[in-house]
Every structure is written in C-alpha cells, then in structure tokens.
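Pasting as-is:
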Amino acid sequence: MADEEKLTLNEFHTKMGKQTNGGVWGVLDKTSPTAEELGKAIEMAFTSRFHWRIVGTLTNDVRAVYMISRVYAHWNRGEPAVHYGEMMLELAQKAEKEDKEKWADFDMPFVYEALAKAYAADGKKDECTKYQKMSQELIDKLEDKQDKEICQGELDKLNC
C-alpha cells in the first residue's frame, strides 16, 4: 500500500495553489503552445486562484490573477488578458499597501509586464509600451540579481 499524504484542508489548498500556479510556467515558456496546452494552463491558473483565495493573502491573489492574464495574452486573447490585467493592477495597488509582509519588490514589475503583454495581445501598442517602460523602470531598481534576471527575462519576451 502506498504511503498516503495527510494534509489539513488549509495545507491542501496551499499545496494545490502552489502546484497549479507553478504548472502554468511550462506553457508560458513555450513559444508556440498548442490550444490544448493553453486550455489546460488557463484551467490551472483559475484553479490556483481558487485555492489561494481560500488560504492566501492579497499578494497570492495578485500572483494568481497575473497567471490568468498571462495565459490569455499568450493565447492572443486580448480582451480577457486586459480584463484580468486591470483586475491584477487594482489588486496589486491594494496589496502593496495592505499586504506588506508578503508583497515583494519584484511583484509590481511583473504586474506591469503582464499588463504590457495583455495590451500587446489586444493590439494596443501605446498601452503596451507604457507598461513595458513602467516595468523596466522598476526592474532596473531591483537589487536581488536573480529577481532582476527573472523579471527581465519575462519582459524581454514582450513585443509591443
């Protein structure tokens, strides 16, 4: 008989939130994912948000909505990408003030990067360029080398 993992309900939600959020990256890292892969990625992104809204903080919610917007942008579905991108920005502005313990200096550059990609997918070059510049300005200020490289790597994938 296989070992059974026993988790409390909150531990389960945390584990599923992390796994489903992390599972999206494999698809976002692909240049040309299939529609099936993107469909699974959006399901994972929404699942992650569901779990984080139960056990997470406002920052976890921002990061989950980030994934939703990013998948829609990667799928070239501009309208929902922008919708969730704007939702993410609103949540981020609140989290930056109210969730200081969890909020990191790399969060807002990612928010702006996702918004730029959402507007690119929606064909709005001016908005894309605006958020691209905002993201770059904050990336340039990051002190942690690894955080800076990761943020820059995602922004460098953008083509307004």
